[in-house]
Amino acid sequence: MSKDIFLGVDIGTSSSKGVAVDGDGNLLATAVREHRVDRPAPGIVEMDGSVWWDEFCSLSRELLEHAPGGFAAVSVSGMGPCVQLTDADNHPTTPSALYGVDTRATAQIAALNAELGADAIYERSDSYLSNQSAGPKFRWFAAHRPEAYERSRRFHMPASLIVARLTGEYVLDRQSASQSTPLYDAASQEWARDWAEVVAPGIELPRLAWAGDQAGVVHAAGADAAGLREGTPVAVGTIDAWAEGLSVGAVEHGDLMLMYGTTMFFVGNTDHRVQHPSMWGTTGLREGQWNMAGGMATSGAITSWLRELFGNPDFATLVDEAAASRPGARGLLMLPYFEGERTPIQDPFARGTITGLTIGHTRGDLYRAALEATAYGVRHNIETYRDAGVPIDRIVAVGGGTQSALWPQIVSDATGLPQVITEKSVGAAYGDAFLAARLLDPSISIREWNPAREVVEPRAHEAYAVGYGHYRELYEQTKDIQHALARAQRDSDDVVPET
Asked: pTM for the whole thing?
């Protein structure tokens, strides 16, 4: 099978990435298309889903240069859970509402909690409603984009939209569906159609499958647009964090995938249903697998923001300057809630905070404080996993942040936990390529494709004990002020633009 070439594509928050991989897991080529999400008003983070398809086709055609015989199979993942409303032909009717960084639906969350019962939603869906939940965003579209909603017949996430445009099949994996609270029933692992009629009336729900199942084959129109061979098998995709966890083999009971990126994301794997009110219980990638997931609203986004404020120096320069600071960032403490926060505090009105500043502090100190803030957030989430009884036997770190030694080291120091880093840290697209390859050979192993490269051991755990205590206390002491400032920010631009 090693002569076969597989295409994996991931539609991410800041870019789309494609890879060509052979049947032995060798990475032959990568290609990237950068993009930006739109933030037209406070709380709204959206993107035109047409870009997802255009970038997929562009990446496919570029990577075909490395697959002279054509791709043997294709799989796609994407950020999520998103709500991209489309017409019956899978063309977007309005920009998509993104995952938990989009906090537009707070009023709809409150209304659905009152209507369906917050605890009833939690018991049926394994998660309380939050800004991470896809369901309330349907209600928001109906209220704020009524004409677009009336034209809408389907909804998609990035992977399902690409699959539909390639094959004509309207299908979503169960993992993605399980984050569409309250539209999904965790016990039956099927749509909660009674609630769907209330939450998303008039929207046809896709059939459900497991990630990696064959969705269909590329039809003539899809082949023409993407340069693929008609009849090429296409796998059912999933949300990017799960594809990335798969890419490094963090998929067994007791594994925790820790993803460094624009946002920080966590996936803990178990062999049974799990619930915790501060986290997200989800269905896994395969039958018999369950997850508890969590996510921070900002992490790498803060370092990018700081870099822009500093005049766009090289990231390597900033990392060197942060390394020259010391644990505790010379008395600086940051809360990383610059876009609110997801887990475990589930507070969309939290705001970023920097305390302890003096005129003697440097940009290296500020940059290190940002890295330490995300590390404290990771520790807070891991402690919550343990409170829920979720085993953490093995932590595997993924994402662009692992390319620098400093950030993972700070996280291991702050948490006191080692992290495995695999030989390849390609990202979700590599996991997609594995799903595609598995369509042809179900016996292949991701741990053979991508073995461990190193283990980051904690070296200065005690140095962060006091800082972590301050971190937890600072939020509790300032959250009322943060909420007041968040209200002021929304009041300054409370008109939602129509598009």
From this structure: 0.84
Q: Would the pLDDT of 83 be above 90? A: yes
Closest CA to 134 of 203, 188, 184: 184
Contact 25, 5 (CB under 8 A): no
CA gap 376, 471 in Å, rounded: 7
Query: What is the model's pLDDT at position 2?
Result: 58
Tokens of 78: 């994407």
Q: What's the confidence (pLDDT) of residue 499?
A: 40
Per-residue pLDDT tens digits for 350-407:
999 999 999 999 999 999 999 999 999 999 999 999 999 898 888 999 988 898 899 9
User: What are the DSSP calls for 46-74, one per residue?
Assistant: EE-THHHHHHHHHHHHHHGGG-TT--SEE
Rounded distance between C-alpha atoms, residue 10 and residue 18, angstroms: 6
Q: What angle do CA 356, 360, 364 make, to 5 degrees?
A: 80
**End-to-end distance of the chain based on CA atoms, in angstroms?**
48
pLDDT of 493: 62
In whole angstroms, give the CA distance from residue 232 to residue 252. Answer: 30
Quick one: DSSP state of residue 496?
P
What is the CATH topology of the domain spanning 5-241? Nucleotidyltransferase; domain 5 (3.30.420)
Q: Which residues are paired to 16 by β-bridges?
A: 11, 33
What are the residues facing 333 on neighbouring strands? 355
What's the rounded Cα separation, in Å, for the pair 295 and 249?
Answer: 19
Kindly list the domain boundaries of the chain, sorted by start residue: 5-241, 250-423+460-499
Count Cβ neighbours within 10 Å for each residue of 409-439 and write b for 16 or more, e otherwise.
Answer: bbbbbbbebebbbbebbbbbbbbbbbbbbbb
Amino acid at 124: R
pLDDT range class, residue 494, cuts 50, 70, 90: low
Residue 350 has phi, psi (to 5 degrees) of: -65, 155
Picking from 94, 80, 120, the residue whose alpha carbon sits closest to that of residue 265 is 80
d(CA 259, CA 263): 8
CATH topology of domain 250-423+460-499: Nucleotidyltransferase; domain 5 (3.30.420)
Q: Letter for the amino acid at 77?
A: S
Please report, for residues 93, 144, 190, 440, the alpha-carbon distance to residue 149 in angstroms, rounded to integers and kept in the order given.
8, 9, 24, 40
pLDDT mean over 472-486: 97
Q: Calculate the alpha carbon distances from 360 to 306, 333, 357 in Å.
A: 17, 15, 8
498: pLDDT confidence band, cut at 50, 70 and 90? very low
H or E stretch covering 433: helix 428-440
